[in-house]
Amino acid sequence: MVSPAELPTAEVRDLPKDGVPLLDVREDDEWAAGHAPGAVHIPLGELPARVDELADLPDDQPVYVICRSGGRSARATAWLNASGWDAVNVAGGMGSWAREGRPMVSDHAGAEPEVI
């Protein structure tokens, strides 16, 4: 488990292409309200059916998994690790991410990103 502060900001800006691979497992409405730029979004309930979408992520580092507070991402991390992936839970989730001033974007035009 790592905290958002342990993910270098420079690497986070261009996720996942040029930075650390970040998987957001929150629901669609949570994602739309605010998420890390460049993160991959697969809701927890859809992860087993859509895990192949992670194949394009860099394989030389772990997949960092985030949700709102850390519970769903812990379950996703456990499942991914049991399925052969190298996955790490982001402690405190997007709540900690936002409190630490990490970059966020919203899918709602003109709206400030928020964690719901």
TrEMBL record:
Transmembrane segments: none
Region of interest: Disordered: 97-116
Domain Rhodanese span(s) in chain numbering: 16-106
InterPro entries the record matches: GlpE_sulfurtransferase, Rhodanese-like_dom, Rhodanese-like_dom_sf
Domain of life of the organism encoding this protein: Bacteria
PANTHER family: FAD-DEPENDENT OXIDOREDUCTASE, SULFURTRANSFERASE YTWF-RELATED
Protein name as annotated: Rhodanese-like domain-containing protein
The species this protein was found in: Amycolatopsis rhabdoformis
Lineage, top ranks: Bacteria, Bacillati, Actinomycetota, Actinomycetes, Pseudonocardiales
